[in-house]
Amino acid sequence: MLGDQLGRWIGALGSASPTTHRILMVESSAKLASKTWHVQRAHFVISSMRHFAKELRTEGFEVDYRKASSLSRGFHEHVSDFSPTAVVVTEPASFRGLQMVRELGCTIVRSNQFLCHYEDFADWVSGRKSFKMEDFYRWQRTRLGYLMDTSSDDPSPIGGRWNFDAENRQPPPKDGANHWPEPLIDELDDIDLAVINDISRQCHGAAPSGLWSTSRAGALRRLHHFVESLLPMFGPHEDAMTTGSWHLAHSLLSPYLNVGRLSPAEVCDAVQDAFDEGRVPIESAEGFIRQVIGWREYVWGLYWLWMPDYARENSLGASRPLPPVFSDPNRTHMRCLSSTLGDVHERAYAHHIQRLMIIGNLSLIAGIDPQQLTDWMWENFVDGAEWVMVPNVIGMSQYADGGRMATKPYASGGAYIDKMSDYCKGCRYDRKKRVGDDACPFTTLYWDFMARHEATFGRNPRVAQQVRAAFKLSDLDAVRERATEVLTALDRGEL
Questions:
Q1: CA-CA distance, 286 to 444, in Å (whole number)?
Q2: Which are the contacts of 362, defined by CB distance < 8 A and separation ≥ 6?
């Protein structure tokens, strides 16, 4: 069992029995040393592995939990010690992982960690001249039956609409109060503390606090807490950003889905049941289910469809190194950036709009190397994985694939951030200004970005108007000069 296959229901383990199977799990020191991991990211994975091994032993399995220099070394040591008749593995969730288990000669069992296998996704794509997430989502809804009216021979979406996204884009409440119940916190147990002791010297970031549970029971408690206390209010403010709450009504369930502590089916079933019982409005239920069976599985399918070359794409030629603020949130006066990166430091987490429109947006318009950004996000987010970060960064966030995934670059100036957050209040920069020492860096860089990439976006129907508007600015030369100053300050950690 690999470190992101920590569910009794997953693949090969689903039909295994303590009387016929021994479990091999390998904790690889090479994996820990391969990146500069946030300590909460590394702790979550390793402690979850050790807890899962304990759960399997309680069930009666003999578990060979090995600490080895690499996964392949642990594999060969196990085979040498036990001479198994066969080694069976569930398909890994990474391209390189699949190559490795093939080279090791394992018997590979089809993965069921997603509701749409990547081969089925490829079949869905096949023959289409173009495709988008909304089409995939509707196909998923229809075949899986979530929030569908099946009273006739032609199933239709409950509520008469497939998508209630328009209702789910409200800014933070005007009173600025924290309207959302606090996340659950678990007391760190002996396994957690041992992992922290083992890894803390190799990692960075604030120490684990019990926010991210490492047991199956803890994951189930968080699912129940979300459905009962947060899901009813999930939808309206899911795109909002506020200093009053880092979590809002977000589920915080993605880490558990990504390592197998929860299955997408049991999560969506719980949401469907809550809606059927009248405890959750349609816009919240639909918005959340769209994230799970729509966006999450679409990203998964694209990863397998386009890898391995996709991870290296860089269509805009972005080459700026990650600036110092990415490792020290205090290296900027930008309130939105310091707040978001501070959240990452404290909890290894930021929600999807913070990732896309603060971290990703700045990286896009500043021309930061997309491969460096992909690695940084993989290392620093508790729900990070290669399949998560490559499509989301290369395609959605940085337009590094030339528009294969997203039809426009997700770039904005300070106006969007001001609309969807309270970050601009009290910031030293003025989101309305594009030139001058107090001009918002987002606003300056946005217009510079549009002018800089005229050849790429001038004929893109979704952003061509903004490109034309950039060249109509009476102070475009001053904007470009200010953009150079902004980028120099960003590189120096003085912005």
A1: 37
A2: 337, 368, 441, 442, 445
At 347-397, the pLDDT tens digits run 999 999 999 999 999 999 999 999 999 999 999 999 999 999 999 999 999
Calpha distance 189→140 (Å, rounded): 39
Whether 367 and 302 share a structural domain: no
| Residue with token string 């960064």 | 393
Within 10 A of 267 (CB to CB), how many other CB atoms are there?
22
Q: Are 142 and 158 in contact (CB under 8 A)?
A: no
- Report residue 295 as tokens: 């966006």
Take residue 457 and report the two structure tokens written for it.
Answer: 């976006």
CA distances from 441 to 22, 333, 351, 472, 485 (A): 57, 10, 22, 20, 10
Secondary-structure percent of the chain, ordered helix, strand, coil, rounded to 5: 55, 5, 40
The yes-or-no verdict on residue 191 having pLDDT over 90 is: yes
How far is C-alpha 183 from the chain's CA centre? 19
* Boundary residue ending a domain (273, 306, 339): 306
Q: Do 454 and 370 lie in a common domain?
A: yes
Question: Buried (b) or exposed (e) across 166-184, using 16+ Cβ within 10 A?
Answer: ebbeebbbeeeeeebeebb
Q: In this structure, what token pair is assigned to residue 426? A: 């009290």
Q: Is it the case that residue 177 has pLDDT exceeding 70?
A: no
